[in-house]
Amino acid sequence: MATAKRSSNAGTGIAARFDARRLLGNNLTWSVVALVILIALCTIFDPSHEFLSLHWNKNTGGLSGPLITMLQESARYLMIATGMTLVISTAGIDLSVGSVMAVSGAAAMQLLTSGMNVWAAILISLLIGLLLGCINGALVSILGLQPFITTLIMMLAGRGIAKVITSGENTDASRVAGSEPLRWLANGFVFGLPVNFLLALLIVILVGLLCRKTAMGMMIESVGINPEASRMTGIKPKKILFMVYAISGLLAAVAGLFATASVMRVDVSKTGQDLEMYAILAVVIGGTSLLGGKFSLAGSALGAIVIAMIRKTIITLGIDSAATPAFFALVVIVICVMQAPKIHNLGAEMKRRRALKAQAKAVAA
Amino acid sequence: MTDNQPIVVMKGITIEFPGVKALDGVDLTLYPGEVHALMGENGAGKSTMIKALTGVYKINAGTILVEGRPQTFNGTLDAQNAGIATVYQEVNLCTNLSIGENVMLGHEVRGPLGINWKKTHEEARKYLAQMGLDHLDSHAPLSSISIAMQQLVAIARAMVIDAKVLILDEPTSSLDANEVQDLFKIMRKVRDSGVAILFVSHFLDQIYEITDRLTILRNGKFIKEVMTRDTPRDELIGMMIGKSAAELSQIGAKKERRAAKTGEKPIVSVKGLGKKGDINPADLDIYSGEVVGFAGLLGSGRTELGRLLYGADKPDSGTYELNGKQVAIGDPYTALKNKIAYSTENRRDEGIIGDLTVRENILIALQATRGMFKPIPKKEADEIVDKYMKELNVRPADPNKLIKNLSGGNQQKVLIARWLATHPELLILDEPTRGIDIGAKAEIQQVVLDLAAEGMGVVFISSELEEVVRLSDDIEVMKDRHKIAEIDNDDTVSQQTIVETIANTNVNGKEA
Asked: Pfam families, per this entry (chain A) (predicted)?
């Protein structure tokens, strides 16, 4: 009886250790840990000591507080990180998402000031993003150009297109009548939470369902892992490549609307600037390899929120603007290091080395 | 030989991959001046054992002693520094450097002004001469000599780094008989200089010709260490596969001839199908229930014709009739839609999708024919995966394992399952038995016969004439990118018939 009890205890001990190991090996774990630590940092060092405070704002009909603004900002990252995940899964990259954001934002603001109906303006700017994505897709898939070069060119061209659309102005649509629906998308609240965050979350879930409930996800991964073998199974890799860049363009356009509609103004040189880097970082934090293959949309989504939280931390802690890139890099590096399998095996490795040393001594003696 | 001290003692080597024990307490002892073979089926753990010894994989348990000292290999460099050199199946030299530079890479002779190239090449020639390779020009680029010669250069290189152990993993798989003899000559020289050679080959004749001792593995476990000369072949095979050799010999008999096909319509009938630079226009009829063998040397066009039939390459001439209807097969998708499937000879680059699971690898072609947005219902998918994994005896029997972690033979079975899941009427198998062990080979040969018996048309492409003769109803003989003959395979036909056909038949009016 006693022995039976002991052995069952040992069993659960092993199971628990095994689970802990798996938990440590999971990329999501470290994103969550990073979020908690950053929030803790902000809570402790925030000069006003109100980081975690949430107030009901009667004017907006939603909650307000530092965390809420963080979620509002994360919406745009969620969008571009989702598109970027699919592109990276095919072993590609989309450097143009920031510029596409500027183009769609510029289009929306310009169309609104020209008096167009707000829904038509939204639709057209989304279509423009989709079109730019399709151009990337066509160049990469049909012509077989390298994704890095193709989207780098689109990144440069996109800024130019945005400036052409607004004639070089930073178009301001904040006084245009009838633009409330767009404003609401970026600044409104539903169930007390920001509309843009909920909408972004909904889109991530829809893309996730599309990938995993159909064969789309598997085929994207397959093309990323081995395009020639995929072709031999009857998959059309060109179609898949075209599709992911098109999706990335469309989602970048959504991000562009979120970014510009929050202030109802486009800054043709600043809107979406550097955001392609944030998107790539979010994907990497989420555990999708830049070499292509298996992807995790949940991981990328969490990564996007971590990125938004890092930016919020920088503002809250009042980190000197000169030091912000360094702080950003530091946090991302720490997360990546903690995710590395080698770090997780460190304990076992040390043990083995000690054993070997002891053995060597024994042999020598 | 066994009275001196061993160079390498591996004891209780255990290597675990997520979910599998690839090696479970395996021992291996190598003595100086011997050729030692690792024997076992695919998946027995031979490659894993080699990777443990060369520092590619870290061992989870066990010890490695090199000349009596315990070693931890954290990478291939550690193993190399300990005196363990490897010559891989795919030669890992720099083809754009000269032969001499390759031999001396990292050990160039240095003078006051950097590398003294003249002396370096002299030194290289010295090592090459030791191997009996003095006819090679050390200044010629490595790419100018055959793969077989490159392998010998790689061995010379191993001597430069003063290796104590030389590992030859399947060095003979792409060599012809003369080249194998050249290799063996050099292996004997290296052995006599006191180096321990660890040799892996699927060819039993070669094992008996060159090796002194054998270590036999099965399913990641150590079975036995024996002297080659004291071990009869059937006993060896029995130990490798864990059952008597008699069971295997059943399919050794020549296939029973299929009944006459007069009056039937062929499944596939092509006329003048060809592609410039790949294969000259050829005619071919394939009937239901028939195995058509493509025989010919490497580069004869046998693979190219198979690829054209599947649309993997686009033909630029000829007509293609499928069950009497004219079709244009220009890509794999169209071929699969028309119930034609092709299993590639290039398993790693064009076959498996390494980071996907066995299950996904089986389902992916069927899924592609149905379309991305019509997922195969889970129940149907489970049934398909379960059925084919059982029928083809895929091991391990876990569909959620990544296919890259399976052995070559089992990867091949998964690929065949993938094509069978699309229910083809014509299945083209390009070298389905290459590089896999005797057990899996027999299983796959049996599958070919069973499929034909069920009414499928099978194209069987293989470089082993023995297999082609044994399994085929008709044999298409290929030479220099031409189909040169079609042999009705009856009892009078043997390997010799085909060899003679290749030797004596003209292509394009040229005397052969």
From this structure: BPD_transp_2 (PF02653)
